[in-house]
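User: quick one, sequence for these tokens?
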């Protein structure tokens, strides 16, 4: 058995059980990009994703962390999917949990002590829609001092943004994309370099129609 494939399948099953709602739908992401193209957000996500892709090269070296109230399960699952689909092992994240339960599987019980072990060549990806708590800022600062690359996806956190090598800020309430939508754009862009277009995909018009139905409901509703 391919242990990496089995590990990835276990990860996705656990992510779905703990808050993730499904696999990557590339058609819908492509439609979302087409819809948002005039805003410049797909391009911003691609720039940030390039930094993620180029810094996270080895399996186990991408450390993904949020806040105690908002752990990024959804993004973890999408990055895991992108790693599998693109063949880029470095995109498979290690999800850092604030209070991992004793019975959690080994790959889902990495706690804050893993951040203390971060080293040069590893990437710490911090995702927080609010203000990062002081204990997280301290660990991010320590990780940066030891040589880890720090990336941050935030809604505007001056202290955290100041510690990051690369930041993507999604302003709350005045932005054409939501914080969740930005995570979709980033994860899809991170994996796209290793994925060729599959045959038989629907055209942009069909994808846009499907996306608009999802957003606003079909005509007549």
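Assistant:
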């Amino acid at each position: 058995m391919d242990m990496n494939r089995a590990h990835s399948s276990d990860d996705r099953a656990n992510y779905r059980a703990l808050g993730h709602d499904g696999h990557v739908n590339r058609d819908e992401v492509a439609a979302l990009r087409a819809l948002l193209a005039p805003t410049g957000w797909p391009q911003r996500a691609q720039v940030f994703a390039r930094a993620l892709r180029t810094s996270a090269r080895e399996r186990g070296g991408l450390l993904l962390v949020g806040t105690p109230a908002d752990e990024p399960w959804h993004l973890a699952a999408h990055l895991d999917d992108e790693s599998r689909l693109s063949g880029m092992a470095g995109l498979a994240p290690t999800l850092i949990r604030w209070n991992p339960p004793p019975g959690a599987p080994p790959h889902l019980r990495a706690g804050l002590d893993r951040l203390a072990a971060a080293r040069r060549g590893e990437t710490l990806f911090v995702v927080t829609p609010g203000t990062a708590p002081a204990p997280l800022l301290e660990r991010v600062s320590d990780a940066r001092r030891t040589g880890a690359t720090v990336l941050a996806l935030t809604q505007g956190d001056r202290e955290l943004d100041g510690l990051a090598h690369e930041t993507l800020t999604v302003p709350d309430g005045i932005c054409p994309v939501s914080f969740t939508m930005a995570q979709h754009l980033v994860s899809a862009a991170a994996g796209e370099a290793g994925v060729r277009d599959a045959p038989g995909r629907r055209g942009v018009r069909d994808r846009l129609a499907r996306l608009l139905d999802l957003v606003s409901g079909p005509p007549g509703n």
